[in-house]
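Thread amino acids onto this structure.
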């Protein structure tokens, strides 16, 4: 059952239908590629949801949604998210994918998009916004449900950057770009020719990487969505133990490191894909040894989705997606083609190796200059996290060096390890001018659900740790 706080309902517009096989039409793409009505679209615990059930739920929900323009899809259950996302698409609503679910950012989002409402399957959000509650998936009668073909240029979602380099920025995504991105990802890892598999994710579907890998890939490759939202090692292991079908794990280095540190068994894995932050070769090697599964890494951005990949254990070269091209103008790199479309300027420093391969040097905004020497914060963080006993850590540059007086410091999660021991290890790994002074030992870092450290949160966190006696602003 579903209920709404808004009594108005939207009428789902007519959409093109697919009947049998036909020549591909580049102006439309099907909602999903599962061919048989009984094909499994999603699993939740021991419950399978078929293509027929999914399509009936989507089309029934599209008729019940509030008559608004934007749906802020905050569903935790990944199957509920997929149903809500698809229903909003049919109702010509745009799904907003916020990076934060706190009340204040949601209210700010609603001010930016006044015709917005919450589409959610839980009631733990106190935002004051109108909401449509999905308490269960609609299961109407057993009449056949058509697989709609959606115009490629229809705006399906607005996604937001994580805020790692500042304020989150909005980017509109057409249905065609999302479909072509999933197709490119499938081709990059040769997934399109594989038998149907199930995708398990530790990244929320509201994140561009999570949307691409845990929603769009299953829908467009005929695979299955794992509906859970587990993150803790024991929960992920339990989820995998329930599955009869081999799984691909879509995750982050932050989560992989936690699973490796606990030596958790992850049965039934056929492959692992990691993104959102750099994956060290040593971490990838340990993961492959522990779980006997190849570990692939994605390079991409919110603006363009997946752009390239590599197997971290094989070397530093990244392979560009087959339908993309890259160029450089001075120190600035650009990419175009396929799901990216027009030339897109990248924020990372890149060294092009040949037409298809490149070396990633790190974000252009994270360069640190001390005593005439330059280093990347990403490289410094990688060195810090290789120190024995460090569970998590991040360098911080107060004032980003703008005052000329800010010295690098570091926040480190390392139970039982002293700052002196961390410094001694770091001396072997980085130039002494970049050694952090001081090192603050903390219980945790303010990472978001994808393992990133948004700039605003890190700055506020640093202020509380470095200046505990200062009054809080606001």
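Threaded sequence (474 positions):
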């Amino acid at each position: 059952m579903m209920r709404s706080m808004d009594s108005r309902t939207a009428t789902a517009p007519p959409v093109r239908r697919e009947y049998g096989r036909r020549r591909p039409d580049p102006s439309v793409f099907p909602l999903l590629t599962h061919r048989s009505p009984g094909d499994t679209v999603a699993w939740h615990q021991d419950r399978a949801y078929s293509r027929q059930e999914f399509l009936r739920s989507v089309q029934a929900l599209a008729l019940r949604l509030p008559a608004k323009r934007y749906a802020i899809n905050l569903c935790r259950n990944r199957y509920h998210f997929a149903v809500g996302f698809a229903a909003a698409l049919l109702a010509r609503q745009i799904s907003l994918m916020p990076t934060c679910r706190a009340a204040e950012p949601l209210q700010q989002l609603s001010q930016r998009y006044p015709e917005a409402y919450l589409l959610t399957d839980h009631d733990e959000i106190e935002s004051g916004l109108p909401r449509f509650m999905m308490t269960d998936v609609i299961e109407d009668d057993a009449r056949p449900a058509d697989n709609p073909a959606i115009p490629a240029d229809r705006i399906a979602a607005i996604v937001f950057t994580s805020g790692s380099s500042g304020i989150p920025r909005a980017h509109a995504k057409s249905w065609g770009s999302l479909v072509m991105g999933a197709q490119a990802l499938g081709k990059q890892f040769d997934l399109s020719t594989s038998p149907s598999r199930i995708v398990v994710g530790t990244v929320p579907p509201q994140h561009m990487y999570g949307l691409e890998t845990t929603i769009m890939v299953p829908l467009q490759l005929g695979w299955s969505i794992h509906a859970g939202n587990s993150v803790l090692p024991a929960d992920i292991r339990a989820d995998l133990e329930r599955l009869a079908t081999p799984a691909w794990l879509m995750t982050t280095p932050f989560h992989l490191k936690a699973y490796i540190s606990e030596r958790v068994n992850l049965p039934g894995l056929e492959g692992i894909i990691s993104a959102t932050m750099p994956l060290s070769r040593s971490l990838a090697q340990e993961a492959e040894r522990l779980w006997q599964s190849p570990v692939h890494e994605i390079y991409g951005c919110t603006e363009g989705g997946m752009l390239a990949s590599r197997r971290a254990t094989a070397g530093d070269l990244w392979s560009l997606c087959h339908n993309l091209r890259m160029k450089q103008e001075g120190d600035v790199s650009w990419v175009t083609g396929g799901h990216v479309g027009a030339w897109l300027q990248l924020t990372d420093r890149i060294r092009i190796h040949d037409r298809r391969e490149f070396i990633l040097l790190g974000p252009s905004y994270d360069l640190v200059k001390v005593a005439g020497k330059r280093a990347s914060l990403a490289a410094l963080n990688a060195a810090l996290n290789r120190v024995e006993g460090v569970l998590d850590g991040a360098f911080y540059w107060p004032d980003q060096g703008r005052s000329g007086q800010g010295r690098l410091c570091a926040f480190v999660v390392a139970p039982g390890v002293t700052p002196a021991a961390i410094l001694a290890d770091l001396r072997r790994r980085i130039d002494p001018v970049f050694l952090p002074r001081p090192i603050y030992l903390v219980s945790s870092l303010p990472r978001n659900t994808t393992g990133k450290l948004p700039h605003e949160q890190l700055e506020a966190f640093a202020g509380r740790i470095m200046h505990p006696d200062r009054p809080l602003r606001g």
